[in-house]
Amino acid sequence: MSGLVKISIQVGEFEFESEGSELEVDEKFTQFKEEGFWNIIKERLEEAKDMTVDATNANSQQKLIPERGMKFRTLVENCSLEGKPEQVLGALHFLRDVEGLDDCPPRVINALFEEASIEPPGNLSLYINRLREKGFLTIAKQHGDKNRFAELTESGRKHLETKAKN
Q1: Which residues partner with 51 through β-bridges?
Q2: Domain limits of the chain?
Q3: pTM of the full structure
Q4: Which of 28, 11, 31 is nearest to 19 (CA)?
Q5: CA within 20 to 30 Å of 5's CA: 26, 41, 87, 158, which one?
Q6: Of 13-17, 56-60, 158-162, minimum mean pLDDT range
């Protein structure tokens, strides 16, 4: 045996390398720690660990949400649909224009919210009626006054487009 000791540590742009007798390497490493570089390296390693844990948690959360729910959730987030009326408008757009459904009963709308891990609106009639009053929704005469057949008007589509641009 040669009695030489070597230590090499690199974290990002910080690097420590020393080779020599055990005493020499130990002295250089002690000096490196006294200069504060060792604490910086430990902080960087801790940050990297935390980012990995956060990314893993986010991926796990996304895998818990079905693909359909993730698509709707992405629509809600990208368009900044914060209030329930706007979220209901977004849900009707998603169900009718994206998924191609003609009949959107409350259970289907609520299921979409649940799949997206978004609190369901509850009293859908209230929100649909508000959106109709604003001119964002309409119901074709052949369906009477059944909210399950509500469709976005041109004004409703433009409102969502405006929200998406902001």
Answers
A1: none
A2: 5-64, 67-165
A3: 0.61
A4: 28
A5: 41
A6: 56-60
Calculate what percentage of the chain has a pLDDT beyond 90: 51
Q: Give the alpha-carbon dihedral of 93, 97, 102, 104, to 10 degrees.
A: -30
Question: Which H or E element spans position 11?
Answer: strand 5-11
Give the bridge partners for 18, in sequence order.
7
**pLDDT score for 58:** 60
Sign of CA pseudo-dihedral 131, 136, 141, 142? negative
Sign of the Cα torsion 117, 119, 123, 124 reads: negative
What's residue 65's pLDDT? 67
Q: Which of 158, 165, 149, 156 is nearest to 96 (CA)?
A: 149
Q: Which long-range contacts (CB under 8 A, 24 or more apart) does 108-116 make?
A: 112/68, 112/69, 112/72, 113/72, 113/87, 114/69, 115/65, 115/66, 115/68, 115/69, 115/72, 116/65, 116/69, 116/70, 116/72, 116/73, 116/76
